[in-house]
Every structure is written in C-alpha cells, then in structure tokens.
Amino acid sequence: MDFVALLGARALATLRGWGRAALFFADLLGALLPALRRFDLVVAQIHAIGNRSLVIILASGTAVGFVLALQLYNTLITFGAAESLGLVVNLSLVRELGPVVAALLFAGRAGTSLTAEIGLMKAGEQLAALELMAIEPRQRVLAPRLWAGMIAMPLLAILFSAVGILGAWLVAVGLIGIDAGNFWATQQNGVDVWRDVGNGVVKSAVFGVICTAVALYQGYETEATPEGVAYATTRTVVISSLGVLGMDFILTALMFSTGR
Q: Most Cβ neighbours (<10 Å): which of 4, 49, 76, 120?
C-alpha cells in the first residue's frame, strides 16, 4: 500500500507540474503581443541570445560539414554515387542536422543562460519588485526573451547549415577531389527551397519556442537558492534536449511522410 500511495503521489505531482507549465506557457503567449511595444527589449535579447551563440554554432557547423563529407563519400563511392555527395550533405543539414544540432547547442548555451538569469532575478527578488510596481514580469522580462528565441533559433540553424555545406565543399573539392561544379549543380537540381529549406526553418522555429519556453519556466519556477538555480539549469538542458528530439520525430513524420 505504501508503494501504491507513493506512486499516486508521484503521478499527482507530475500532473500538477504539467498543469503549471501549461498555464505558464498560456500566460506567456498572451504577453507576446503587448511585449512588442518595447521592441528594443526584443532586439537586445536577440543580441544576447543569438549573437553570443554564434561562435559555437559556426564552429560546430563547420566541423559537422567536414565529417559529413568524409563519411558520406566513403559510403556513396561504394555504390558509385560519389557525384551526389553535395546533394546528400545539403539535405542532411537543412532537413535534420542543422535544426536539431543547432537547437541542442542553443539549449546548452542560451537556455542555461536564460534559466540562470531568471532564477537569479527571482532569488534577488527583482521579479517581486516588478510586481510591486505594477509591472507584469511575463510581459516585461519573459516575453521579449521568448520572441528572441523564436527569431534567433531559425537564423542560427540557417548559419549552421550554411557553414556546414561550405565545410563539406572544402573537404570534397580540396581534399577528396570532387568537381566543384558538380558539387553545387546536384544541390541546385535536387534541393527544393520550400519543401527542404522551408521545413527546416519551421522546425528550427518550433525548437526555438521549446528551448526558450523551457528555460524561462525552469528559471521562473526555481527555488530562490544557489542549489535551486543550479538544478534548474540542468533540468533545462535535459528537458529541452528531449523535447527537441521528440518534436523532431513528429515534425519529420508530418513533413516528409509523403513522396515528392
């Protein structure tokens, strides 16, 4: 009976947590439009979230492009399809690796920063001070950061894919010896802007909402202690990563379940 009671208590606690998260997200969505009145706050957060993540995004994208070119060439040459290397690299990046890997890096770099920032504001009673002055924290503090995540994430994913393709081109043409014209021509003929690139941008925008919303919720609901903030940042990375991977499967099934 103790086990059943413990299991029921855990289930109720989980449901209460999901309910609080759903209500928090609904309130946050309601604060998005009013937050645009102070668009300068959104711009500042885009710089803080996006610009400061550029180094890791560009470095990781280049490295992924290098490795993709080498690995895919060794596979494609077995089937006599080495001329399709550029197309396969492009589709791999713009459809999957660009949005997903960029989102995971975004969760680790920007997500933890957001959680720690909001958590420290709560610990320092800055959020309570805003409420005392009749300023809604969700509209003044949280909503601009959600806007910034939705805008910055697709841009970072595009840059990740772009530098990845350039990195693959350097390896394919400079190291392997594939014809440069053929490398670009296969991409031009085989990549559809709306179906491939467009769906990748949609994915990255959804991932930006997931990572940013999770980071803000964990920071807003954390205990106002150093240990609570540290635990919240860890939960941000774990939950955001699982959310991105799960949503990637759902979006891929919806977007690419039918043929061209």
A: 49
